[in-house]
Amino acid sequence: MAVLVNKDSKVIVQGFTGTEGTFHATQMIEYGTNVVGGVTPAKGGTTHLDRPVFNTVQDAVDTTGADVSIIFVPPAFAADAIMEAADAGVKVIICITEGIPVQDMVKAREFIRSRDCRLIGPNCPGVITAGEAKVGIMPGFIFVPGRIGIVSKSGTLTYEAADQAVKAGLGISTAIGIGGDPIIGTTTREAVELLMNDPETDGIIMIGEIGGNMEAEAAHWLKENMRKPVVGFIAGQTAPAGRRMGHAGAIIGGADDTAAAKMKTMAECGIHVVASPANIGATMAKVLKGELVA
Question: Which of 54, 90, 146, 279 has its CA 20 to 30 A from that of 18?
């Protein structure tokens, strides 16, 4: 059923009783996500939102069988929360936290490499399988079930792309917000590969931005492995070199980091590149009808 999360996922919330954790856990539960509990140190044995609270992720996993965790933990402690979830055997770890020190993320990413798990984020909107499970901060009502997958560095553009796909009569299978930090757990290519291998996804929307080489890496992989149409957009077309724009990783460090360079590479690799985010949904609809050929 789509990728990463579905109606059978057992989700725990790290930072469950905090303001952000409470607000978004409530929204997730209302969407129908199977939230089985949460973790807040020193509050184990209590309940919150009618779910049990545990002192550690290991306690939560042992008691509930949780296989997905979403992290709403302050930046100074978020990397430790990622490693704790990985060490406890959680299979999908989604970190929403923004502003985690780069050095902390270097350690966390190295730690999880030897564990059987996948990290999404940090600094991301999360993952949603439309109509089944929302594990993140995205507005759930936008995501109507369908067969278009989304991979995006930008939370806002994830929502925009989903809205356009729905209005074009397509709907969403799974949307993955990979995050905009320099060091993240799952790259654009890895997320695109998940959706390319998903039998319930017919087309993929890939949204990138200036900075780094993840879009180029994904494009070169797609050139050899594209079995479904991909529509792409790169944000930051007017960004000046050397200045960070929004996300910590959105900074042009060289000629290949510009939006123009990425768009050129993507188009050469068979991706249907749009110059404006306003054209994402309509372009995907035309591609699926056979009206556009890369």
Answer: 90
